[in-house]
Amino acid sequence: MRGRISNWLSTVLSAETRTGVITIAVAVVTIAWVNSPFVGSYNAIIHAEFGFPGLVLDVHHWAADFLLAFFFLVIGIELRHEFTVGSLNSPRKALVPVAAAIGGMVFPALIYVAFNVGQETLVGWGIPMATDIAFALAVLALVAPKSNPALRTFLLALAVVDDLGAIIVIALFYTPGLQPLYVGGAVLALGLFAILQRTRIGHPVVLIALGLGIWWLVFQSGVHATIAGVAIGLLLSTKRGPKGTLADRALTAFLPVSSYVAIPVFVFVSSGVSLAVIGACATTSPVFAGIVAGLLVGKPLGIVFFAWIAERYFGGRRDASLRRGDVWLVGTISSIGFTVALLINDLALGDTSFGETGTAAVVVAAVIGAVASFFVARRVSA
């Protein structure tokens, strides 16, 4: 059992570390493109529409609504794994990273609210709550390549819980209007999916077709379509058969789609921001200040403080090899929100004049957070 868990964790970490490096490269290329004389071609690409009768979307919405569902499918599988046989499979083991993740969501949201209270931009409070798993693991690999494996496990567990929180926030607060008929259809289809996967009828082709149907129903329901990916990931069977568990096989099949297609394409369509906007917003916009301060200050403070509370008053125990400085490093790295932060920014502010400001803030916070992680890692290892 321990060997299987180790192999699974190694697969996820290596794939997501590579994804983070690719994400960084795509973001750099995109920002350079948007700030070049060829920005018109970039806008033409992301606004190009295609599809089929009844469902025509532009590239940006295909990336955010469809491709990103594969990313959240992987998140759902990771959540199921962590809560069954992973680092969150017992209350004592789960308490510290879960508490740290909650603190890392609450503090940034409060800081954003403090900057934007009483303004229409208050709706963006969810933006600085997110941690980008792939980006964070890539930065950890770059700034601390010889770090304790328990540090990576702690960061992964925290980021997975953080993404669960982001999923709940999206479902509860960034759903504009529900269509009950489609919601009911999606629930019934998910129930059918749960049953079929345990029968001989549940061939992968049938399950994929049903999964696409579930995505369409969720998309039509008004709930953000990425929720379909999470729901399916959580439902996938972990019963071991001759070819392994269905969840493991799905992870093997869809992790490359998530890592090398969904996330890079979404970052490409979402991170295009003018440097002029960054300069103009840095000193004048409460949205910019709330997101940057929320991520860079709220994240590490919330993570470290709530982890301490969990250990001091609730009997939580982190891995014996993790020092307090390691928790500060995790907190600093977790300030990189990027993929999910950009998604929430798109949902909260995308249709307003503040959307580009939010994007600029997420990008700036990610760059500063990555640089700060380097110095904290040097300090911790000294």
Folded structure, characterized:
By secondary structure, this protein is mostly helical. 74% of the residues lie in helices and 2% in strands. Strands 1-2 form a two-stranded antiparallel sheet. Helix 1 runs parallel beside helix 10, helix 4 (91-116) runs antiparallel to helix 12 and helix 13 packs antiparallel against helix 15 (355-381). The protein is globular.
Provide the descriptors you would attach to this structure in a database record.
single chain; 382 residues; mainly alpha; Na+/H+ antiporter like fold; two-stranded antiparallel ribbon; 15 helices; 2 strands; 2% strand; globular
Q: Specify the CATH class.
A: Mainly Alpha
Largest sheet: 2 strands, antiparallel
Helix content: over 70%
Terminal CA distance? 36 Å
Domains (count):
1
Give me the strand/helix succession: HHEEHHHHHHHHHHHHH
Task: Enumerate how many helices there are, as a single number.
Answer: 15
Q: What is the CATH-assigned architecture?
A: Up-down Bundle
CATH topology: Na+/H+ antiporter like fold
As a whole number of angstroms, the C-alpha radius of gyration is 20 Å
What is the strand arrangement across the widest sheet? 1-2
Question: What would you call the shape?
Answer: globular
